[in-house]
Amino acid sequence: MPTEDKEKEVAELEQLLANAPLVIATGYRGLKVADMLRLRRQLRAQGLRYRVVKNTLTRLAAQRAGKPGLESLLRGPTALALGSADPAAATKVLQEYIRTTRLPLEVYGALIDSRTYSSADLYRLATLPPKEVLYSQLLGNLQGPLSGLLGVLSASIQNLLWLLQARAQQLGGAHD
Question: Of these four, 31, 38, 72, 94, which has the most CB atoms within 10 Å of its CB?
Fold first, then answer.
C-alpha cells in the first residue's frame, strides 16, 4: 500500500508530466549540490524545471499522464528537465553545461510531444543552428529559385522584344 507522501508525489509528477510537452531525462551521479543548483538555474532560464525523481513513482505518473514512452528513459538515478521550452535550446543548455563543467552528466533521452528521442538524437538537435538561422536559410532556399525563374522569364521577354524590334527594323528598311 503506497504511503500518502508517495501518492502526493505521483499526483504532482503526473500533473507536471501532463503539462510538459518536453521532458528530458538525465542522470545526476557525480553532481554536487552547487553543480545541481547551477544547472537548475540555467535550465530555469529556458523555462524548464529540473527535478530528481524516483523511477517507480515516475513510471506510475507517466502512465497516468498518458506518456508511457517515458518509461524507457528511466534507468538508474534519474532527474527530469520538464517544461514547454524549445527542445533545441534546452538541449543546447545541457550540452553546453556538460562541455564547460566537464561533469559526468549523462543525458538518457527525451520525450517531446509523446515521441521518444535518444541521447544521440538530442546531440544532433543541439548542433542545429538557431531557429532564426534555419528560417532565413529556408527563405533563401525558396527565394533563390524564384528569382532565377524571374530572371529567365524577364530575359525571355526582353529577347523577344529585341527580336521583334530587329524584325521591325528589317521590314522598315526594306520599304525605304
Answer: 94
DSSP 68-91: GGGGGG--SSEEEEEESS-HHHHH
Percent of the chain having pLDDT more than 70? 97
Q: Which helix (H) or strand (E) holds 100?
A: helix 87-101
pTM: 0.70
Domain boundaries, position 69: 4-128
Q: Distance between CA 175 and CA 70 in Å, rounded?
A: 88
Same domain, 108 and 138: no
Mean pLDDT of 141-166: 76
Assess whether 139 and 104 both reside in one domain. no
What does the block give as the cell for 134? 534555419
pLDDT at 173: 64
Cα first-last separation, the chain:
112
